[in-house]
Amino acid sequence: MTRVLVVDDEPQIVRALVINLRARTYEVDAAHDGATALRLAAARHPDVVVLDLGLPDMDGVEVIRGLRGWTRVPILVLSARHSSDEKVQALDAGADDYVTKPFGMDELLARLRAAVRRAEPAGGGEDDVIVDTGEFTVDLAAKKVNRAGKDVRLTPTEWHLLEVLVRNSGRLVGQKQLLQEVWGPSYGTETNYLRVYMAQLRRKLEADPSHPKHFITEPGMGYRFEK
């Protein structure tokens, strides 16, 4: 059973989420501030976190950074902040998706399901492939990346983006295709998501992120992975 950690200081939103999630057989824990959220995450190991940014004791971005210090759990941000800069800041800190308040429950649940799917381990069979660039290796079956003898920690969304590019090695993958495969069919124009996550992948995996050899941008078109 999937366990969800809901973090929000608005009791009516927490109550609505708890009722709707439990009705769909999710197990739910709730926290009303950042410190409680971090403690519950460490104790309960949720499968996905739904996080408000406007918490009473700390900014939600700090909670994201705290979680990303030790876990790759999918984080779905829920916030009344509408500016693109704030969304990018949350995504850059390690969030996997962003839903703006007020929100539709059906859309939120669909995005939550998508976030959980992206975090699921790959199955066996013909997809058991290890790609070696000489600088880092990508194990598609184990969902692991190793660079200089050390595992590289990626968020579920970073991994999914990497996986799509690696499986299409040498081929241009269009912006719309990447957005829809990684974030879902309702996406197609949020190219700022791609810029943020490609920058993160380059920072973590490229020897010189400002002059990438493996994650190539085709301006206005998409991205290409080269071994």
TrEMBL record:
Which molecular function GO terms apply here? cis-regulatory region sequence-specific DNA binding; identical protein binding; phosphorelay response regulator activity
What residues does the OmpR/PhoB-type domain cover?
A: 128-227
Q: What is its main location?
A: cytoplasm
Its signal peptide is none
Q: Which SUPFAM superfamilies does its entry note?
A: CheY-like
Q: Which GO terms describe its biological process?
A: positive regulation of DNA-templated transcription
One cellular-component annotation, GO: cytosol
Domain Response regulatory span(s) in chain numbering: 3-116
Cited InterPro entries = CheY-like_superfamily, OmpR/PhoB-type_DNA-bd, Sig_transdc_resp-reg_receiver, WalR-like, WH-like_DNA-bd_sf
DNA-binding residue intervals:
128-227
Q: At which residues is 4-aspartylphosphate found?
A: D52
Q: Which CDD domains does UniProt cross-reference here? A: trans_reg_C (cd00383)
- Enumerate the subcellular locations listed in this protein's record, separating them with semicolons: Cytoplasm
Q: Which UniProt keywords apply?
A: Cytoplasm, DNA-binding, Phosphoprotein, Transcription, Transcription regulation, Two-component regulatory system
Tell me, what does this protein do in biology?
Answer: Member of the two-component regulatory system KdpD/KdpE involved in the regulation of the kdp operon. Upon phosphorylation by KdpD, functions as a transcription regulator by direct binding to promoter regions of target genes to positively regulate their expression.
Quote the protein name from its UniProt record: Transcriptional regulatory protein KdpE
